[in-house]
Amino acid sequence: MTGLRERRERTLGPYAPLFYDRPLELVGGDGVWLTDVAGGRYLDAYNNVPHVGHAHPRVVEAIARQAATLNLHTRYLNDRVVDYAERLLATFDAPLDRVVFTNSGSESNDLALRIAAQHTSSEGVLVSDFSYHGHTRALAAATTGLRTREGLGPHVRTLRVPDLDGADRGHDEATVLAVALDEARAAIDSLRQEGHGLSALLFDSLFSTEGLNRVPAGYVAGLAALVRGAGGLVVGDEVQSGFGRTGTAFWGYQNHGVVPDLVTMGKPMGNGHPVGGVALSAALLDEFGPRNMYFNTFGGNPVSAAAGLAVLDVLRDEDLVERARATGVVVRRGLERLVAAHERLGPVKGTGLFFGVEILDRPRNDPRARPDPASTRRVVEALRARHVLVSRIGREDSVLKMRPPMPFGPREAELLLDELAEILDARPFGRCPLRSGA
Ligand code: PMP
């Protein structure tokens, strides 16, 4: 154990998670590269918080300049804050024309649930059965992807999110859709019968924690129609999928042809500076505002607004959403080549700059094939040893997770793919080698 790790455990306790068997001590970042304390360089194929790249000079300068001018709480008029609200709202679809700023994704989702409860006079919440939406008490009671003391609240019902590239592979898409929507109907009925009513559906439009599920066409729209039919609101959690991550749209919900009633934001919004927000319609805010004093000391302060504005500027000026789409095509093609060569890899999942590939314990065509988290873990560690950073997601932690900063380009994509290919070729994982026929 290094001295720093010991000191960390003695102060932060042993429960604050760290990546890797040999945790990294990083001291610098630029673009899609990170530098460790020994001067080693790492290709970052994991981090989405530094959305427009580590230490992007325009974001750094905007933060520094505003911090050197004025930063304080949010109860004074400030043109930068209003400029940011206007610029951000211009990216949304009607009727989302108001934004409430917060400091994190958790705060945003917590507030969205409060607004939904106010609107519906109900508490019932629908979430997926393997999801993460934040760390407040209300969200801990609605979180299914992590262990919490609260456990699921009596007002929460969970839905199994279908996956045409996972558990539902090979099944008829229309049938998978019908079964999933029946399950949602039953969950809404059960909330009604037990007196909770329906307040909100809370979902991540990329189903990232779930493992980047490929849902049947019309699934999210179908869920939204059921929820609205029962008087509930639709909350789109764009903490992972927002700000162009999918390459095909600025907001993940746009890929599903649904405009949520509330959209929650966090992680990439300030490129590492803590800022979040909830976008909603004036009508909804006008219901909530007069009955609830909502004051957020730090949420959307002038420095946060400067960071957020700079992120929007860089996304536009460097055409990063299109770049994510184009690089995503390169990554997908490369991963598909790897899948063709290695029969223990599942189908390629994801879009834009968020990809997943599941590792299985047997050839994928063997009906007994199961997720193999131990092998996935070994690949993540082997990539780290080769200075490429990725992670794992999914119910079984068996899906390799690749989600780099947005400037990740074709050259970096080839680097990632080459390293991954060498690892998969070189090492026999578990009971059978990854390479078909090897
Ligand atoms: N929603 C989603 C989909 C997330 O992935 C996360 C964080 N991983 C959150 C909400 C919570 O955001 P924060 O950690 O900023 O509170």
TrEMBL record:
Keyword Cytoplasm: no
Domain of life: Bacteria
GO molecular function: pyridoxal phosphate binding; transaminase activity
Record Gene3D superfamilies: Aspartate Aminotransferase, domain 1, Type I PLP-dependent aspartate aminotransferase-like (Major domain)
One Pfam family in the UniProt entry: Aminotran_3
InterPro entries linked: Aminotrans_3, Aminotrans_3_PPA_site, PyrdxlP-dep_Trfase, PyrdxlP-dep_Trfase_major, PyrdxlP-dep_Trfase_small
Keyword Transferase applies: yes
Keywords, alphabetical: Aminotransferase, Pyridoxal phosphate, Transferase
PANTHER family: ALANINE--GLYOXYLATE AMINOTRANSFERASE 2-LIKE, PTHR45688
Family note: Belongs to the class-III pyridoxal-phosphate-dependent aminotransferase family.
Protein name (database record): Aminotransferase class III-fold pyridoxal phosphate-dependent enzyme
